[in-house]
Amino acid sequence: MSTVSISSTTSQSMSAPAPESNKDPLAGMTLLTAEGYEPRAKAGIEITKNALKRIRIAMAKEGISPEAGGLRLGITGGGCSGLSYNIRFDSQPRERDRTFLFGAGLETPNDPSGAKPVRLFVDPKSYLYLAGMVLDFEETLMRQGFNFINPNSTKSCGCGSSFSA
Q: What are phi and psi of 58, to 5 degrees?
């Protein structure tokens, strides 16, 4: 009588690759750092070149001068996950706003501003939730709009416009 031994070992080459759990959401993006801030600083806000282009086009369409106005980023209570992003144009910063300046002298395709810098205004309360984030603009067949890539977000809903911190 002979004995057959069966072992259950799996070869490394036969196993499925492990899913990449720490995929970098900023991979392949050109990040622009605000004047006076260090790249990837937790105290700053950054934007992508795509966002800069779209902000300039939208400001020109709305008749807002880059010298006087800017884009206001903010947080309000509500939405699926508790907090919602809001974005709108403003004619000037408020007294306690943090102002971030981007893109001075940097040409973007179809640039109506002539490479003038754009300003982002953030109120102190919203800044607590937005510090360290990246504003991107996505344009695909399925979706077009601004994306908030926020390291302070602990969860977000499917719509992408609300989050928890």
A: -65, -40
